[in-house]
Amino acid sequence: MWLRKLIIAACFAGCLPCTDVFAADTKEVREIRFDQIYSGSGPQGASFSPLARSLEGKRVRIAAFAAVPFRAEAEFMMLTRSSMHVCPYCNSDNNWPIDIIVAYTKGVAPVTNPTAPINVTGTLELGPKLDPVTGMVSQLRMIDSVVEPVRR
Known about the structure:
Blueprint: H1 2-12, H2 23-26, E1 29-31, E2 38-42, E3 45-48, H3 50-55, E4 59-66, E5 76-80, E6 101-105, E7 118-130, E8 137-149
């Protein structure tokens, strides 16, 4: 907190340019849970909830589990509501949960224990999008994601 006050004072004194020094720091982050993402399904499949639609383009945080990485040094991770004890890519009989989230990170995604919960914060994107590297189509993404362990 004292650092923030020092930088603000430096801005007003003219020592630092008064730009969005705290843009990333002060953006509101909203919590969302997996059970709040979809509101039902219809002929076109699952539909996004009004809450999810209202948070599109905003920073959100979700408690999740990371599936086993798709490939080494990937710049994304697959988030699920519960721990996936088997490799989802290794067995074609495995069904992905409908509410997976692709979390794109800045740089290589951290390797996490698939049985340990994590908190992921990122900008929410909704709707189909093709990943040009993997060819995978996602319905739900978090961009510029930051991953932290759940503190108990």
